[in-house]
Amino acid sequence: MEFLHEETILCPYCNESIVILVDHEDREQEYIDDCSVCCRPIRIQVTTNDNDELVVTVCDENEA
């Protein structure tokens, strides 16, 4: 089964839309990936909400 899903996010640095792959099996994730446009590091957090839906949050690497 394929659990990777494309999500479109906005880079917190250059504000460009980029596509990332999110693993739907791993319900709680946090990792850093480089923006494919400006190459700066983006902190990506994947959590679930009360309805068991995935929520993707992005920020620059220095934000808490």
From TrEMBL:
Stored InterPro entries: UCP037225 (IPR017143), zinc_ribbon_bacterial (IPR025990)
Domain of life, per lineage: Bacteria
Name the UniProt record assigns to this protein: CPXCG motif-containing cysteine-rich protein
